[in-house]
Amino acid sequence: MIQFLELNKLGTAELARLKQRAETDIRQLFPIAQNVIDKVRTDGDKAVIDFARQFDAKNFEAHMLRATPADFAHARASVTPDVIHAIEQAHANIEKFHKEQLPESMWFTEVQPGIMAGERITPIASAGLYVPRGKGAFPSVMLMLATPAKVAGVQKIVVVTPPTLDGKADAGSLVAAEICGIDEVYVVGGMQAIAALAFGTETIPKVSKVIGPGSSYVSAAKRLLYGTVDVGLPAGPSESIILADETVDPRLAALDLLVEAEHGPESAALLVTHSREVAEAAHAALPDYIAELPEWRQAFIKNVLSNYGGILLTSSLEQSIEFVNEYAPEHLEILTAEPFITLNKIQNAGEILLGQLTPIPTANYCLGLNAILPTGGFARSFSSVSVHDFLKRSGVGYLSREGYMKLQGITATLADYEDFPAHAMAIRKRNLILGVNND
Predict the structure, then answer these.
(1) Is 348 exposed, middle or buried (0-12, 13-18, 19+ CB in 10 A)?
(2) Catalytic residue among 239, 260, 330, 351
(3) Please, which pLDDT band fits residue 135 given cuts at 50, 70 and 90?
(4) pLDDT tens-digit series, residues 401-428
(5) What is the pLDDT of residue 196?
(6) Binning pLDDT at 50, 70 and 90, where does residue 49 land?
(7) Same fold for the pair 26-113+122-233 and 236-383
(8) Distances in Å between the alpha carbon of 330 and those of 241, 326, 380?
(9) Measured over all CA atoms, what is the biggest interatomic distance in the chain, rounded to whole angstroms?
(10) Whether residue 106 has pLDDT greater than 80
(11) What are the structural domain ranges in the chain?
(12) Which strands sit side by side in the sheet containing 156-160, from one edge to the other?
């Protein structure tokens, strides 16, 4: 049953549940995750291999931990030329977009004569990229993570990705890694992969940052390891809002509603519109579209559209926009008569796609935008993965004698007020040493 909801008729509890999505309370997974983390920290590779056998591939062996040159060659041979070409073209677009994000490596401004302040931007030393494989293969995620890391100039980039049942990495993901210039891929996933990157093992290196979407178990491990390693943005179950007015073809709205819904049973997908005609026509079109999909994807979609999504009818475009901003979706597709005008009213969304010719699938793969986005309402304060996730800023300052003379008195006064005598002494005795008059 596909939900057909009217916003003005929803009670407080119903509205809260709709906005909550299927966000799992991962605290119940903490004991399991902590056990895995502790074992990986103490037992290293042995624990990683044991958990791989338990969760992924029963016949997993130590020599399978890292993808070999032969694995890369076999992957390229097993992927069809059209798929390789598509990955190459997607990579080119994603790379071009992320190169535009690069800031100047250093900048200064003259605050006052003799007072210079600025920043120096440098890449982080190492990054671990988590490329999932739970409900499918995701070479697109490899591109979205590896490309900005390479563009940012990270020297040590390693990838972890869960094994298939035969203990190998997904072939398309290996091809994407190779195209991005990455050859260090470890065939390990889940909680044990995050722990291995946080602490290092005999085979898998410790890194400065772990980034990439994963299951609830991966999220639990990241939460517990926060403070041990930088775990990046929160990226949970996929979600989308299709924001439409009366001018849209309802068939397009219905088609695009299915996109994020097919990711998994915990995804969220909403068509939000003030047009009853569009809402009813889209609702009528959905069953036939769903019936054309494989049964296992149908199961995902039916669960999503009957629990965490469906069609939401509002009283006006303004009310629709207000709901969007409160929901803060991962993906937002604007199907209105004037999408650029609507855009100006959107405050919270991980990604905003404008018009009927800019569907979510194209952005997910090859438009150039990064498709690793904040979920669960975190678009209110987090942004998509970008080169900035792999860069750090150092403040840089310089005072000439003139500049120092202007600031030394202010410095000492504020140090006295905050009761930091060593701060004040560093100024006043410096003045005596340098022959500068105290103000």
Answers:
(1) middle
(2) 330
(3) low
(4) 999 999 999 999 999 999 999 999 999 9
(5) 98
(6) very high
(7) yes
(8) 8, 12, 10
(9) 86
(10) yes
(11) 26-113+122-233, 236-383, 400-434
(12) 185-186, 156-160, 126-130, 209-211
Q: Distance between CA 343 and CA 369 in Å, rounded?
A: 17
| Residue 74 a catalytic site member | no
- What stretches of 249-384 show up as alpha helix (H) in DSSP? 250-261, 276-291, 295-307, 317-327, 339-343, 360-365
Pick the CATH number of 26-113+122-233 from 3.90.190.20, 3.40.50.1980, 3.40.30.10, 3.40.50.300: 3.40.50.1980
Gap between the Cα atoms of 257 and 309, Å rounded:
9
Model confidence band, residue 298 (pLDDT cutoffs 50, 70, 90): very high
Of 91, 274, 283, 331, which one is the catalytic site residue?
331
> Which structure tokens are listed for 258?
């299915």
Q: Does the active-site annotation cover 388?
A: no
The mean of the pLDDT values for the chain is 95
How is domain 236-383 classified at the CATH fold level? Rossmann fold (3.40.50)
19: left (phi over 0), alpha (psi -120 to 50) or beta: alpha
pLDDT the model gives residue 417: 97
| Residue 71: closest CA among 5, 141, 168 | 168
The amino acid at residue 25 is: D
Q: Can you tell me the distance from the alpha carbon of 352 to that of 370, in angstroms, rounded to the nearest whole number?
A: 12
Q: With beta carbons less than 8 A apart as the criterion, state whether 129 and 145 touch.
A: yes
